Every structure is written in C-alpha cells, then in structure tokens.
Amino acid sequence: MKPHKTNPSSPKLSAAIVTPIAVLLVLALVSVYDMTFSNRYPHINRVAASSSSPSPSLPSRANSSSSSAPPATTAESCDLTRGQWNCMKFGKPSLEFMRWRWRPDGCDLPRFDAARFLEAMRGKYMAFIGDSLARNHLKSLLCLLSKVAQPVEVRMSPEIDVTGRAVRRDYHYGDHGFTISLFWSPFLVKANQSNATLGQWDLHLDTGDDRWAAHIADFDYIVLSGTNWFLRPSLPVPRAVRAAFRTALGAIAAREGFRGKAVLRTVTPAHFENGEWNTGGDCVRTSPFRRGSRALGAVEAEYRGAQVDALRETEAAARRNGAELLLLDITEAMDLRPDGHPSRYGHSPGGSVEGSFVVDCLHWCLPGPIDLWSELLLQLLIAHPS
C-alpha cells in the first residue's frame, strides 16, 4: 500500500520497480513514538551533525508524549482550513491524534512561536516548492501564524497548469514585510504531459522548472519537497528522484544572487491499509505506532536516500556561492503517525481531494502531526541558524 505505487491523479499508471539504495545517511533522523502519557512537551537543543551528515540536522531519536495542552490552532481559529484537511469540521471520529507531540530524546521541542517566526522573517521572502504536500505544509504554517497575523493573498490571476492547479500563490504579511509563495512543481524539473488519459509525463531531469527557478535570486528561504508524482515505469523511481532533486538543488546552488537557505524536506509516508487509495485502502488507526513496532518501508527509505544523495552532491557548490542547503528530515517521525491523516474526513461528504482521491491517507489533518514540520523549521532556520 503506498500511494507512490499508484497515482491518485492517474489511476492507470503503475509504479516503477525500485532498487535498494546502497548508501544511507549515517545520522538519520529516527523518530519513535511510545505510548507513555506525559504532560511534558518538547524543546530542542542543537546537535552537531556528524561528518557524514550532509547538512545541519536536528536531534535524531525521539519519543512521543500525550499532552493535555490544547493544539496551537484549531479548525475554528484558522480560516484557511475551511475547505480541505479540516478533520474536525468534517467529522473525523477520533481527535486523539491532536494530543500527541514529537519529543526528541534528551531535550525538549518548544511549541511553535508565531511572533518569533514573523519577527525573524521581517522583510524576507520564503518559497514553498513541490506538490500538494508542500501546500499541506504551507497551510499548516499559515494556520500557526494566524495566532499573530493573517496574510493577504495576492490575487493576481494565477497561471493554471494542465492539471488545473495554480502554478503560484502569494501570501503577504504587510506589517512584517514578509511574503510566502507557493509554487506548484510536483517534479521540480521541466515536465510536459504527454498523455493526459494515462497520466504520462515527459520529464527533463537535467532542466529546472523555470516557473520557480527563474525567481531563485528573489528568495531568502526555499523549502523544497516532492516525490509523490515520480511514477514513470520507464525509469527506476529513486534514480529519477535523485536526478530531479540534484537538478533543483543545483539550480539553487548556482544561481547568482542567492545567498539564502534552501531546506530539503524529506519524503513523508502514507498509511493506506487493506488496499491502496483506489482499491479500498483506508487509515483508521487512532494512535501512533508503538516504539519498535515497525521499520521504515523500503520505498520511503529509497526515496529519502535519493534525496539525501542529491543534497550531498550539491551542498559544496552552494556553500562556495554563499548559499546553504539544509535537511529537514521528517520521514521516520511521520511514518509512526498513521492516526493523523484525514481518511474520508478531509473534505465535505461526497467531495474529493486531489482529483479522484476520496480516502486520503497521504496528506495530514490541520491541525495535526504536520505542525511538527514548522516547529522544526523554526529551529533549523531561526533558533539555531549557524
């Protein structure tokens, strides 16, 4: 069961057979959950990366605890979740997933500080680039920031791509002079749809997607992600993922004028059980997996390994040009959160998410486990910037 094996937007497209990655990152961000209830909530201390780590990283091993504290946002407090991923609004039977928080071993992780984040971003420009999970992350961040300020969406008639999605959305915080842009670029590289019925694409793996790459010099921060659309049967998927991320990161590293930080967010697992997205699969668990109860799936390990390899191969060039590439490694943390997906409660009854995607075990409820990504992003970019 992995949505990487079948495409929600292209039901007839089967996945490539992938081969194992021989070299894995020694310093992995291994996040484990136990079932001990505690009122403690985490804070994070800077942990120096080992010599084999491709970039500054965060504490690796972790537990999970349940907290009596309310979530940072609610479905009622954030207007941005009205139509999508609002599991409270659309009747998810159990909301226990909102009580669990990620706790690194040996330290605590502060809750997201919206005022601190916005102050640090004063006068800055941040871009999220990727597929619908990049949008999921951005909506989570916007909701976390909504406790302090609401953005104005810059509504210039957006370009619509062949999938019917807006290529770019811009959100501006006027009091802080801070802009966030979301770029729809599921392959990160130049892509042409060759067969809409079969969902087939021609990918130019050595050519960046100029819809976002043309603006690199304008950005101060870039959050790059995306693996779920790499389903071409003619090419081993990890090889395509590695090539696309290498091209995207290489474009960032080589762009004259970019002296900012680019963050690669690693693959996030799906949790379809008893079938896939189009064969009756669902995600009905109400608590995290127990510590040590499962290993990371081979597909996720290969995709993550391909991403890390691409970052390793481009970080030296970025450093020479005054930029910095960072790793936001959330793969294993999210692998242990089957309870945090919308299932059929991320949209109105009778509706769907992402085309024919009705039961959603890929994206994350808002609020929910995905809020961890912004908590870690704050630590990576602001609390421990060196």
From TrEMBL:
Predominant location category: Golgi
Domain (Trichome birefringence-like C-terminal) ranges: 109-379
Organism of provenance: Panicum miliaceum
Ranges annotated as biased composition (Low complexity): 48-72
Pfam assignment, any one: PMR5N
Family, as annotated: Belongs to the PC-esterase family. TBL subfamily.
InterPro entries (UniProt xref): TBL, TBL_C, TBL_N
GO molecular function list: xylan O-acetyltransferase activity
Protein name listed in UniProt: Protein trichome birefringence-like 21
Annotated Gene Ontology cellular component terms: Golgi membrane
Coiled-coil stretches: none
Record carries keyword Transmembrane helix: yes
